[in-house]
Amino acid sequence: MAKRTVIIAGANGMVGKEILEGLLADDSVTEVHSLGRKLPSMAHPKLTAHVVDFASLPGLPQADEVYLALGTTIKVAGSQQAFRAVDHDANLAVARAAQAAGVKKLGLVSAMGADASSGVFYNRVKGELEEALEKLAFEGLVIARPSLLVGDRDALGQPVRRGEKLGLAFSKVFGFLIPANYRPVAAADVAKSLLSAVPQAQGKNILLSGALH
């Protein structure tokens, strides 16, 4: 594979951290530019960290791929408007800036249930972002739609999400009854799936949660 320069937004999150670690371990990746509101928790010779305001992004370095893993919850954000500013507006701003920097391929961490016409606010915002990214017409677009995520939020200094905790406990007992797309999925598996799919992506590709395991 040709040498690649990659941009990632959201490397301090549970999936984003796994994506970043995978990129840094990949010999075909020569440069990684991380965008965030604070510095990532790791340092590496290939990593250049940029502390940015997503509402007024500067020009980005030329790159081949971009990974969008920015996300929050309404509870943490404090309001629906603040949630949308992160999960929709910030991700879309990075995508537009990356496209202007020559990026051809994009990977997105979305969610099961993403649907721009959904009556559920969370799902609607996720779906609206997917539609906005599709309109940008990247050469390759990979959308991962994980169900409840499994990972160590404590290690990231993030509050444990009650739904994820309950979902994991339920699946350990009744997992055989849960359709594959709705079983909890490890953040590492979501990251690996995107890292495998994005470099070779052509057109729009959706990876449902069952395929991420």
UniProtKB/TrEMBL annotation:
Pfam families: NAD_binding_10. Residues 10-129 form the NAD(P)-binding domain. This is Putative NAD(P)-binding protein. It comes from Undibacterium pigrum. The lineage of its organism: Bacteria, Pseudomonadati, Pseudomonadota, Betaproteobacteria, Burkholderiales.
